[in-house]
Amino acid sequence: MVTNGIQNIHIASMLNFAQHMDEIIICDIGFPIPKGVDYVDLVLKDDVPTVNEVLDEVLACFSVEKVIMAEEGRYYNPSYVDKIQKKFDPCIPFQFITHKEFKMRSQKVKGIIRTGDYTANSNVLLVSADSGKFHREYHG
C-alpha cells in the first residue's frame, strides 16, 4: 500500500501518464471543464482544497518546465499569484495569457484537477518537464 505522496488513484494516474511537454491544469471551482478532457473533482466544500494546497502535493512528485496562468490573476489576486510563483525555481518560466486563451488551451490538456478554491483566476497550467534522467553526451 502506498503510504505517502498523492493517494488519489486518479490524480496519480494522470500525473504518471503525463509525458514531456504534456499539460495539466489545477483549477478553481468555477473553471469550465471542457467536454472530453480527463478531470478529477476534489471539491469537498468551499475553498477546500485550494489550488495552492493541491499544487504543493503535485509539485512534490511532478517535474515542471513551464507554468502558465491567466493575466487577470495578476490584477484580481496579485498576492495569490505571487505565492504560486514563489513555489517554483526562478529559472522556470512563467507565462501569462488571457483567461479566454487559458480556457481555449484547456481543451487540449492531458488532465484537469478541480479544487474547491474560490480565488478568482487562481488556475495554474503546468507543462511537464522531462525527468532529467536522460543521458546526453553534449549539454549545449
TrEMBL record:
The molecular function terms of the Gene Ontology recorded here are: D-ribose pyranase activity
- Regions annotated as coiled coil: none
What gene does this protein come from?
A: rbsD
According to UniProt, the reaction catalysed is: beta-D-ribopyranose = beta-D-ribofuranose
Report whether Cytoplasm shows up as a keyword of the record: yes
Organism of provenance? Faecalicatena acetigenes
List UniProt keywords, sorted A-Z. Carbohydrate metabolism, Cytoplasm, Isomerase
Q: Where are the transmembrane segments?
A: none
EC number(s) from the headed UniProt entry = 5.4.99.62
Q: Name one Pfam family in it.
A: RbsD_FucU
Specify the domain of life of the species encoding this protein: Bacteria
Species lineage: Bacteria, Bacillati, Bacillota, Clostridia, Lachnospirales
Identification of the protein by name? D-ribose pyranase
